[in-house]
Amino acid sequence: xxxxxxxxxxxxxxxxxxxxxxxxxxxxxxxxxxxxxxxxxxxxxxxxxxxxxxxxxxxxxxxxxxxxxxxxxxxxxxxxxxxxxxxxxxxxxxxxxxxxxxxxxxxxxxxxxxxxxxxxxxxxxxxxxxxxxxxxxxxxxxxxxxxxxxxxxxx
Length: 155
What we know:
single chain, 155 residues, Butyryl-CoA Dehydrogenase, subunit A, domain 3, 7 helices, Sigma-70, region 4
């Protein structure tokens, strides 16, 4: 996936920009309908930001606002990969930072800029999110019963 900050001519590549934003939104929500709503909030409700950093800042603000209003960890859809299922089980802010860093390729300073978090909080959220993903994706003998497909039963 192309990083928004690496797109040479932002105005000449609307499809590439849309695909980047949609991919981030889908990774955050796990649901095409919710991803579409988040894309709408990013582009339309955000006033069509033309700067890539402004665009992701609006996306992050929308997602943070949504996660406060609906603290659910995600919406399950049949056919999601194990990685996406595990990602949706993360706390919303951990999920946001993991997606921005590990999926979209943003560095710590860029994430801090677009989310409004301090850099040390970005590092903590990324570390805790990755640890939680590891625990969900790599079953250990002491972690409990393994769910089908390798996810750990949290209950």
